[in-house]
Amino acid sequence: MYIKKVLINNFRKIDFIEFDLKESINTIVGPNGVGKSTILDAIRLVKAILLPTMNNEAQTTLQNMGIFSPHLRTIQYKNLANDSRKDIAINLEFCLSETEIQFLEKSISQFSMHRLQRQLPTTSTNTFDLIGYISSKEGDEKLQDIKIKTQQKISELKSNPICNVNLIFRANGQVSGDNSSDQETISYLMQFKNYNITKFSYFPPDRTMPLGDTNIQLGQSDVNNQVQSYSINPQFKFQRLKTTLLNMLMINNNDVESVKQDFKLIFDELLPGKELHGIKLETQTGRLSVLIKEKDSGAIYDIDFLSSGEKGLLMTFYLLMKTLDNEGIVLLDEPELHLNPAVCRNIIPFLNTKIFKGKKIQIILTTHSAEILSTTKDDESLHLLHLIDANNITKILKKDDSEAHDALKCLGIKTSDILFNKGIIYLEGNTDEDFIPIIVGDLISGYSVKSLGGRGEIEKQIQVLQDSDNQEELDGYHIFILDNDNKPFKGSSTKNVNL
To answer: Which of 91, 367, 385, 424 has a CB 3.0–4.6 Å from the CB of 7, allowing a cystine?
Structure first.
């Protein structure tokens, strides 16, 4: 499955936006603080409240997001709404694959039981209460009725594989969803086949790793942490680095070579020159070491000595490869943190070939990286979205052959300068840049300032940009500050080119 369309109304920094997504990689760019991460939070919230895969998922997720007070046992609506006087609506449109519809048909009995369980009061949803209920005449009749409706639902999905999951927060504190049959369908598909595999995972920007030795739990005592790490408590992912590796070893019958091959794939394409040397328990200290080897020098050291960016990247991509089910959904918030540009250039190609094409996993990511932006934009099979403000999100098309693009290149402006800033301020003189912050103060925050080093051919470029603006084909907001000296500029402003 994949999310085909998103609608967000009055949630955190977002006033109202609606946009389509592709089943492949969707990269969302925009200025700092505009609300890119808010989009991921909205999707995660719908998952937790309407599509839970474990008990208390909604409450725990809301608590970790700073929305639910465990002491007052209430939702902090002011931390949730853009305007606390209005309702919040988050709508996700899912598209199911043919394989998933076939799975629903083959498992119609289990699917019907899942729907029955979701429709019963929460006090009656544990396994033994459910067995007791369906053993009664009332329960058996209810289950048979649900089976008939489930068969009808599957028939409908064969002709139209769309499910709408809609979450509404009322300003009075009431929380609800509608279209229960669609919710139950997506919820059933998201249930765990086993605790090591998930259909939905969120990777936060904070990828802090523990230093030194850490407590390691395996087996049943670790299941809860593993399941929570997918979306409920996503920081657990990075605190469990060594635990995860040992788990994978146990699952693969201590096949160290298999783990080494997975690491080799990541190292070779993203962090060349390194390899996984082995996993060792120090006899004197009892410390568990994951050993990394430098190919050139032969130096061997613990994984803790990798940079925070390298560890975060290694863990993120290893988990994407090993814990995501086919046709799953991944939310990836700023994967480029603490990484150099050379590494960032390879992130999208790796995600595309190894994660999307390999497992048909939809990826929705936010970024401030010019390299990630560029590699997404260059591949027309991928989807690049520009979140401009609280009400506007647009698809970025490849328009490198336009006159406006050539004019911007002459002015020294790259696509990333436009998409990651509120606008560009162009200054005629080389020394003007020193005075602008003094004159306009904090108003300059969020803008990129570009010194042009004189008037030169700039007037021609301004005219090209204004022509493009008048045809509504210009990206970004451009401010030109020119000296009103012995050669005043006689042009006037357009909507997005201000003189």
So the answer is: 91
Is 253 in contact with 267 (CB distance < 8 Å)? no
147-155 long-range CB contacts below 8 Å, 24 or more apart?
147/108, 147/109, 147/112, 149/181, 150/108, 150/111, 150/112, 150/115, 151/108, 153/181, 153/185, 154/101, 154/104, 154/105, 154/108
> Mean pLDDT: which of 1-5, 266-270, 373-377 is highest?
1-5
CB 259 within 8 A of CB 292: no
Instruction: Spell out the residues 6+ positions from residue 268 whose beta carbon is closer than 8 angstroms to its own.
Output: none
Q: What is the largest CA-CA distance in the chain?
A: 95
**pLDDT tens digits for range 87-132:** 999 999 999 999 999 999 999 999 999 998 888 876 445 667 777 7
CB within 8 A of 146, min separation 6: which ones?
A: 112, 115, 116, 119
DSSP code for 82: S
405 CA to centre of own chain: 29
Say what the alpha-carbon torsion angle 271, 274, 276, 280 is, to the nearest 10 degrees.
-120
| 8 A C-beta contact, residue 324 and residue 198 | yes
Report DSSP state, residue 379. -
CA distance 333 to 49: 21
Give the tens place of pLDDT for each residue, 202-223: 999 876 655 555 666 666 667 7
Task: Quickly count: other Cβ atoms within 10 Å of residue 55's Cβ.
Answer: 11
> CA separation (Å) from 156 to 152, 160, 185?
6, 6, 12
The pair of three-digit structure tokens given for residue 497, joined into one six-digit string: 């080119």
CA atoms within 13 A on the CB side of 193: 12
Alpha helix (H) residue ranges in 297-388: 308-323, 341-344, 347-350, 357-359, 370-377
Minimal CA–CA distance to 303: which of 385, 221, 366, 209?
A: 209
Q: Which residue has the tokens 């094409």?
A: 357
Closest CA to 165 of 189, 190, 184: 184
Cα 124 from chain centre: 35
